[in-house]
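ok posting inputs for the NAP job
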Amino acid sequence: MLAGRVAVITGGSRGIGRATALALAQAGACVAVNYVHQEQAARAVVDAITAAGGEGLCLQADVAVTDEATRLVSEVITHFGRIDILVNNAGITRDGLLLRMKEEDWDAVLDTNLKGAFNCTRAVVRPMLKQKAGRIINIASVVGITGNPGQANYCAAKAGLIGFTKAVARELAPRGVLVNAVAPGFIETEMTAQLPDATRAALQSQIPLGQVGQPEDVAAAVCFLASDAARYITGQVLVVDGGLAM
Ligand code: NAP
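and the output
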């Protein structure tokens, strides 16, 4: 399905990013797995890709830092010779009610989740425009659509990412570069493992499909948007949430 394509996934060491890296490799893409701190976890993802007969590359970079995001993209091109798919997945939370939210918590979340996507997207645009083809897939969140108390910073970043997706989709559509977002609901990863049991149970009870999602559920949506089957889809937000936000 993706044989001969080169993908880079930010935050590919764990959770949704890890599942997406494995799924893209399974579909035949060469995959660059980015991480910021957890080198061992990222290497394990690349090892799993290689063991399954695929091709992977492990690259450290803090996507919130412009020069590091630029270096990440140029290292992918140096190694694989091209770049076809960018998945802006790296994300963090720093939850707290607005009245108590520290400026550094606002900045950290906006810098990683929104500016990180801007940094990486800007770095891939030139090579993709030259190729007259490319896919950019941004991992947003349903809370960027619905809002969520205690997550003003995160909701703002994810809503911003959805606006960014649509603006860039319009800019790049004439040149064959497709830009979409995936908005997961409540997915079982380290990010959501921190939630208290009562909050988890309350959230789960609101999901029409009756269970939390798995990283593989999001990975499947990303693979679809990266594939030829999605060649007529751009500027969209594909919600993967078990019906939570409908
Ligand atoms: P996770 O398990 O906490 O993993 C986060 C990943 O992002 C890790 O690979 C981490 O790298 C990387 N990362 C963090 N900051 C980075 C930076 N500055 N530069 C590069 N990489 C960075 O999170 P997740 O639950 O899989 O979430 C993945 C994405 O889905 C995020 O954008 C999140 O907002 C979104 N999302 C998640 C859910 C959910 O329910 N889990 C729902 C909606 C949306 P290290 O391993 O090196 O730390």
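notes: The CA atoms of residues 134 and 179 lie 8 Å apart. The two ends are 30 Å apart (CA to CA).
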